[in-house]
Write a structure and sequence with these properties.
This protein has 272 residues and is of the alpha/beta class. 24% of the residues lie in helices and 12% in strands. It has helices at 78-82, 85-88, 114-127, 141-152, 156-159, 175-183, 212-215, 230-242, and strands at 2-4, 6-10, 48-50, 57-59, 67-68, 75-76, 130-133, 193-198, 219-221, 256-258. The strands form four sheets. A four-stranded parallel β-sheet has the order 7-2-8-9, with helices on one face. It has a two-stranded antiparallel sheet with strand order 1-10. Strand 8, helix 7 (212-215) and strand 9 (219-221) form a beta-alpha-beta unit.
Length: 272
């Protein structure tokens, strides 16, 4: 088993999967359109997103939260997803929509654009941190497995990721709260440094005020239309360094303390 020492909280949509800003979740409209999820109006600081089928507007903390179909890129609310061909695996992967990928995908047909992966590789190689999945992709085991399978195609430090702790899943918590609660858990007992990569705001705003000081100098907000850039990655490394993470973290490979046999390489990682 492993104990996380350097934690990198990773979002997927907007970080490793850039999306078209014309169809991205927008800021809260003044008056939610007809068919919106009124149960979620209390989550005033979270953005709305639109279901591609019913066009209903929902919030990120909504019980009917987005279901992203990786093969076709459609984003659906829970109700529409349950009745869709995406749920049965019969969508054919023809519609890409919100998760339309950049044209520079890897030669191995990896789900994630190579430029965004290169930026993630830089962070892992420079800090040997462990990924803690904070994305909504964590809500299903098969989605997590899909991430790991695509990482394996990439080689380097990214390709060596075999498991990822996940933040707690609570419909009434914001992304910031989910990360904070994980940091209070037993899994985080040995954490010495952490950084969060997300396209959501984790510091500013009334809803983030209570925990804002804990996230200052630890959060990197990514522009979702570009996804994770090398500039974002360099900032993340700087934030790890400011918390005492040594260069390349060679004394603690992969950002973890190992209990039992070491199965991963302790050498500096790079793309194959």
């Amino acid at each position: 088993s492993t104990v996380v020492v350097y934690a990198l909280f990773l979002d997927i949509d907007g970080v490793l999967l850039p999306f078209d800003p014309n169809t991205s979740p927008s800021e809260q409209p003044a008056d939610p359109p007809l068919g919106s999820c009124h149960e979620c109006r209390h989550a005033v600081d979270l953005p709305y997103w639109s279901c591609d089928h019913c066009a209903g507007m929902h919030r990120d903390s909504c019980p009917h939260r987005v279901n992203n179909c990786s093969p076709c890129g459609t984003q659906l609310c829970g109700r529409c997803y349950a009745e869709s061909q995406c749920a049965s695996g019969e969508c054919g992967g023809t519609k890409r929509g919100r998760q339309e990928l950049a044209t520079d995908e890897s030669e191995d047909d990896c789900l994630f654009p190579s430029g965004n992966l290169a930026a993630l590789e830089h962070i892992l190689a420079e800090t040997s941190c462990s990924i803690v999945l904070s994305s909504t992709w964590r809500v299903r085991d098969d989605w997590i497995e899909q991430i790991l399978e695509n990482f394996e195609l990439c080689g380097g430090c990214v390709g060596r990721v075999r498991q990822m702790p996940i933040t707690p899943i609570r419909e009434d918590w914001s992304r910031q709260q989910e990360i904070h609660e994980w940091l209070k858990s037993e899994e985080a007992t040995h954490v010495r440094a952490w950084v969060a990569l997300d396209d959501l705001e984790l510091v500013e705003g009334e809803g983030n005020a209570e925990l804002a000081t804990k996230f200052q100098s630890r959060a990197v907000r990514v522009e979702p239309s570009r996804g994770l850039t090398m500039q974002d990655a360099q900032l993340a490394v700087q934030l790890f360094r400011a918390q005492g993470c040594a260069s390349n973290a060679k004394s603690q490979p992969d950002g973890v303390l190992q209990e039992g046999p070491i199965r991963r390489s302790t050498s500096h990682c790079s793309h194959k």
